[in-house]
Write a structure and sequence with these properties.
Strand order of the largest sheet: 3-4-2-5-6
Structural class: alpha/beta
CATH topology of one domain: Rossmann fold
Order of helices and strands: EEHEHHHEHEHHEHE
Number of strands: 7
Oligomer: single chain
Radius of gyration: 18 Å
Helix content: 40-55%
CATH superfamily of one domain: P-loop containing nucleotide triphosphate hydrolases
Strand content: 5-15%
Length: about 230
């Protein structure tokens, strides 16, 4: 008997989101021991990561990952450049140094994921751990103007200055993913869940992510992209 057609997913504020709309296998309940979070500046991504970590008892790793990788690769300048996403320090590490650092990032991230109960913020976790069982890939977004207003309030700068920071950050993160992982930062197929915080509090966004972890989310596409049916 032919099952009802599965509607194409749409991006909804505060809703669970299947980026591709494809037929997928589901994780078993509570099987997701690792969460990667990609976020835009001003989207409240780090705050949401902290709230989710507090609720689930997961360790949140952000700059610690950068520091560990830099120590392992012996490339402190690359770590500084990674943190300086606005380019204020004017650092331009050699390609070989960056590649060594990126290999160390991958190794550290895979070790952390193997340990489980961890939230990895940034550093291309959605690519490095892509396809790995038990990993939920989340993207936190908000409109550019909303993000700029948040940055302006947080840092006490003008809206124009905040907007310039947001745009520089977006450009830096977009270029990093394109250069080293050959993908588009905003490609929805890289993520299991996309949360728009324009109208959501940190706690509300955390609710959505924790619900996804508890219920299980789509992981591996089983059908052709054009097949919207379940047989």
């Amino acid at each position: 008997m032919r099952a009802r057609r599965r509607p194409r997913a749409q991006m909804l504020r505060g809703s669970l989101y299947n980026p591709s709309g494809r037929q997928c296998r589901l994780f078993a309940i509570n099987a997701m021991a690792t969460i990667t979070i990609s976020r835009q500046m001003g989207s409240l991504g780090r705050e949401v990561a902290g709230a989710v970590g507090a609720r689930l008892g997961y360790r949140v790793v952000w700059r610690e990952l950068i520091n560990q990788a830099a120590l392992r690769a012996g490339q402190p300048e690359v770590a500084l450049a990674a943190i300086d996403e606005l380019g204020l320090l004017g650092l331009s590490p050699a390609t070989a140094a960056v590649e060594s650092y990126n290999r160390a990032v991958r190794a550290v991230m895979e070790e952390l994921a193997a340990g489980g109960n961890v939230i990895l913020v940034g550093r291309a976790g959605q690519m490095i751990l892509r396809g790995r069982p038990g990993v939920l890939h989340v993207r936190i977004v908000a409109p550019e103007r909303v993000r700029a207003a948040r940055v302006a309030r947080q840092h006490g700068v003008s809206l124009d200055a905040a907007l310039a920071q947001v745009q520089a950050s977006d450009r830096n993160r977009r270029d990093y993913l394109k250069r080293f992982h050959h993908c588009r930062w905003d490609d929805p197929d890289l993520y299991d869940l996309i949360v728009n915080t324009a109208r959501l509090t940190v706690e509300a966004a955390a609710d959505i992510i924790c619900s996804a972890v508890a219920r299980g989310m789509p992981c591996v596409a089983d059908s052709d992209p054009g097949d919207d049916t379940i047989s």
